């Protein structure tokens, strides 16, 4: 399910499928809109609390029949199989490699509590707080796909690659790794002691390697070694066959797996365009489909051998602003605040989430998800207020010249880049255009190939404004800040707020949970004050699943146990 190590970019599909945006609020007064928004939020909060955290059908391992195949769709064939490398930071890649053992050393339960997976870690304990030291014992039965044992040397090599000391390693994040002072093998090659240079509360994340030393030994091996070649299996499944041209990846049982035998015989991942995924599910060509529109919900309901599962979600959509974009205009925090107050976020939420028969909940926090311990509104009430947005622009010197505002001879103009054939993105962009052009912006939409959206535009920061989704993790305090840190590869805004570095330093060293939550919300409020990322709605997880599939489907926190996934008789 969700990565325990970082926040994933959601592929174009995780942001949702096609959804027509209704002209919400257009015929209402500001007072009526405010009243409607308050009512929606109150109702959404009530509904949100009613959703479970896990909705899949449960069946004890011993009762799951042996054999069978499930077919799951992905949007993109992996461009890099190494998820610690920036090009591999993709939810589809995670979906494929999780059954292979990648990032499976920790497990989350239904409530979000994390414990070591005994198939990989026999024990992990904090043996000293000052200096902070952790003792870890690996399961000595664990091996990589080539049969070589998974040992402490692999963890040491990954730490050196990911701690930021060698800038040639294009890592997703140095968070956590950079706090480690040293890792020393102790009793044998399966036992180590990890010492931290400073206190780091989420130390449990960095107790086991996800990659062998051969991959992390050099920048070249790390950056490009798995651009074509999959990472080695270290779980119940391995690569059976690859068809890059056909977009099909088949996983089969891993004969070197040391844990209990997986029930499924095969897992097939098939690249299916977002626009055709719903029909593919309705036709029985794939067994699982993410549901993000009313139309998709209707199609899924129409399949006779399918069930609909709903849970609280960890995915949230947003508008990310490149503060160096639009000829410098977007570097003005007042312009960004006007954008935030000039967009009807409730209209976007009602159009996309409303037809799903699910709650509409605005995100409004950059660390925690609604319903998660610690969540609070970091904006103190960010409401749709076009008149306030106009005044902000007036005061900042952006005066109307005809229909478009200008300042120092420059128009207040920018483009929203969207991936082709992804209506959820384009519909959000159209709502942004409608709202902002009405108050003096000149916003247009630029459509780009969907397979180039992240690699050629978002990652290299070649955009003014984009709207996609983030997928959360079991460690929101550890992973959430990375998207906004000055030097982070995941900070697509180009805003370098050094105050966030100071706050995050305190946050990651605090062991007291109540104080951590307080500092996390201080961090979130600081991000909110910059208006460089404008959160939209939190998306419930809604999944159509073929009847009979057990221990797999919709889940907010709970990790999938791939040995127990199967098809009941």
- Assembly state (oligomeric): single chain
Query: How large, in whole angstroms, is the Cα Rg?
Result: 23 Å
Report the principal-axis shape.
Answer: globular
> What's the rounded overall pLDDT mean?
89
| Strands, count | 24
* Secondary-structure content class: alpha+beta
Largest beta-sheet characterization: 9 strands, mixed
Number of helical stretches of at least 4 residues: 15
Strand content: 15-25%
Helix amount, in percent? 25-40%
N-end to C-end Cα span? 25 Å
Unreliable stretches, pLDDT < 50, 5 or more residues?
1-49
Quick summary:
This protein is α+β, with helices and mostly antiparallel strands and 569 residues long.
Can you give a write-up of this model?
- The structure is a single chain.
- The chain has 569 residues and is an alpha+beta fold.
- It contains 15 helices and 24 strands.
- The strands form 6 sheets. Strands 1, 12, 13, 14, 18, 19, 20, 21 and 22 form a 9-stranded mixed sheet that branches. The protein has a 4-stranded mixed sheet with strand order 2-11-10-9, covered by helices on one side. Strands 5-6-8-7 form a 4-stranded antiparallel sheet, covered by helices on one side.
- It is globular, with a radius of gyration of 23 Å.
- The N terminus is likely disordered.
